[in-house]
Task: structure prediction
Amino acid sequence: MAILAFLLKGIATVLSVVLNLMLFIVIGRAIISWVSADPSNPIVRFLHDASEPVLRPIRRIIPPVGPGIDLSPIIFLLVLLFLQEFIVGLLYYYAAELARALPA
Result:
C-alpha cells in the first residue's frame, strides 16, 4: 500500500508541474500576442509550437470574437486550473488516505 501511496503522490506532483508549465506557456503566448514580436524568434516559435496543439481544438469550437479577440487561451487556462484543483487534488487526497491506512 505504501508503494501505491508514493506512486499516486509522484504522479500528482509530475502532473502538477506539467500543468504549471503549460499555464506559463499559454500566458507567455498571450503576452507575446499583444506586442509585435518577431515570429522568427526561437522563444516566440517555441511558445507558438507548444501551445497551438491545445488551443486549436478550442478555436474550432469557439472562434475568435470580433477583430482579433481570441478567447481560447482563457478557456484553456480555466480548464488547466480545473484539472490542477480537481485531478491533482484528488490524487494527493487518495495518496494521503492510503498512507493514513498503513499500519503504524
In short: The first helix runs from residue 2 to 34. The mean pLDDT is 91. Residues 4 and 91 are 11 Å apart (CA to CA).
